[in-house]
Amino acid sequence: MNGKIRVAAICLALSLMAGLVLLLVRPSLNPARVKPLPLLIGAWLAFLVAAWLLRKVPRCAAVTLILLGGIAMQVAAVSAPPQMSTDLYRYIWDGRVQAAGIDPYQYVPTATQLDGLRNEFLFYPGAQFCVRASYVSRHPAADLTPGCTRINRPTVPTIYPPVAEAYFLGVYYLHPADDSSTPIQATTALVAVLITVLLLFGLGRMGRDVRMAALWAWCPTVVLEAGNNAHVDVVAVGMAAAAILLLATARTTRRTVLGGVLLGLAIATKLTPALTVPALLRRRWVTVVVAAASAFTVVYFPHVLRVGGKVIGFLPGYLQQEGYTKGTRFGIIGLFVTGWLSIVVATLILAAVAFAVLQFSDPDRPWRGALYMTAAALAVATPHYQWYSLLLVMLVALDGRPEWLAFAAGGYYATQPYLGRYTPPWRLVDAVAYGVPCVVVAVGWLVRHELARRADIAEPLPATAPPATAPPASALPASALPATALAATALPATAEPAEPAELTVPDAGPVPSGEPGPHPAFAGQPGA
Q1: How far apart are CA 366 and CA 351, in angstroms?
Q2: Cα angle 362, 358, 349; round to 5
Q3: CA–CA dist 518, 172 (Å, integer)
Q4: Of 103, 185, 308, 407, which residue is least crowded by CB atoms under 10 Å?
Q5: pLDDT > 70: percent of the chain
Q6: Nearest Cα to 177, choosing from 102, 95, 235?
Q7: H helix runs in 361-464, sequence order
Q8: How many other C-beta atoms lie within 10 A of the C-beta of residue 500?
Q9: CA gyration radius for the chain?
Q10: Number of C-beta neighbours around residue 113 at 10 A
Q11: What are the structural domain ranges in the chain?
Q12: Residue among 67, 72, 77 at smallest CA distance from 199
């Protein structure tokens, strides 16, 4: 395909994807009321076509397309309020609470102590999440104020770790008016673009194909979950990417410590980067563990001093609410066993994968082991939250095998499975959402293995000529031998003359074409 035609086709595919993103984030532009799942499928197909066409685009042009395309996608996603998640309203609230000098883990959003911080953007009649007066009367010890809010789970404490809370506070200071979701959406979109730059730099420095950065920059998961839903997972993924690139190339203790610190901060932003730990312990593991644990402890310590055990937040309640503590949440494992036995099976699978990664992964390519660990966690836990796969998308960009992105696409099916009469029974949705990606990855492995086998068969063996053997000195003409060689043949090997003999080389005439003559350094000189 002609280069200009290829670039034009990529731009067309990305334009189509941007249009589908607009339909997803702006339902008013969708008069036909098409369900989200067909739009998502179309966006994923357009993304895959664009990424496929990019393979043969020259490096400089590819970098330009990746950056401009990624920025354009994020702009489209930022252009509307969040459509698939309301988590960012908790981010805005936590930033507002911290700006007032209150620890975010101290009170729930509807606590009476925080009534003075309420504003009309987050709290207003008719908002999605309401605390009724009857609920307040049944829980007098909670000291709540009834009302409606945009904040989901308004009667429970925040679940986000300290670095995430610091990020929320920083975004609040950028826009103290606190009357719009756009500032935190734009900031998270900017972080996603910076991760693209980091991947381009890291891949180029390691001599890998920089075009793989498109698997992050253009991925629908990144576009929607950064620019539109503004999930803090993007910040955690950025820190994890920096840590992985540092530790993969670290040859000094200083770089290892820095990588470990970034890893600890990533985990203190969102817990999912902990899945990369087994792959990152293959080199200088003591230094990595100490640095990561130190950074993690330092950011938690001030909150522990202020609120004690409340710093755990809603994490235990979340695990219980999602059904993990009862063993009813594992979509694939649940097809075979349930209850406490499913918890045991899930634990054993993850432990086995972690052990294998720890023992056998390549320390120079830790992203591959981290990818295996992250994909295994998604297949086991089968979450309903598509943004949990953001870490996997970044690892795929580093690894370069796009079939693993099926797990990211599957996350959207788990969230939006509705296809009318073609929708499977509810108990099978999670198994389909994360079971199909397992099949896709297996097929991808078989295809790659077969292509590698055929390449080995098709590759011709190098031609091997028999080694050239020098003819004995006595078989060479006198004109082809230096004087010292002639002297060596004139004397027995065991004979040692008392005095050096004078040797005269007779004139043998012109040297035949293709045969070397006497070396100038030896011409006319006596032998040894």
Answers
A1: 18
A2: 125
A3: 87
A4: 308
A5: 87
A6: 95
A7: 366-381, 390-399, 406-415, 426-458
A8: 10
A9: 34
A10: 12
A11: 106-161
A12: 67
pLDDT in tens, 5-47: 999 999 999 999 999 999 999 998 888 888 899 999 999 999 9
Q: Cα–Cα distance between 487 and 509 in angstroms, integer? A: 20
| CA–CA dist 370, 385 (Å, integer) | 20
Q: By the 8 A CB rule, do 80 and 157 touch?
A: no
> 243 and 269 in contact (C-beta within 8 Å)?
no
Using DSSP, state whether 36 is helix, strand or coil: helix
Cα torsion 153, 155, 157, 163: sign: positive
SS3 123: strand
Q: Which amino acid is at 193?
A: V
CA distance linking residue 336 with residue 384, whole number of Å:
20
Q: Which residues contact 426 (CB under 8 A, 6 or more apart)?
A: none
Nearest to 155 by CA among 314, 308, 322: 314
Nearest to 46 by CA among 69, 71, 26, 80: 69
Number of other CB atoms surrounding residue 303 within 10 Å = 19
Decide if pLDDT at 489 tops 80: no
CA dihedral angle for residue 343, residue 346, residue 349, residue 355, rounded to 10 degrees: -70
Residue 294 to residue 283: CA distance in whole angstroms: 18
Q: Which two tokens stand for residue 407?
A: 């797990």
Q: What is the model's pTM? A: 0.84
Number of CB atoms found within 10 A of residue 273's CB: 29
CB 214 within 8 A of CB 51: yes
Report the DSSP beta bridge partners of residue 147.
131
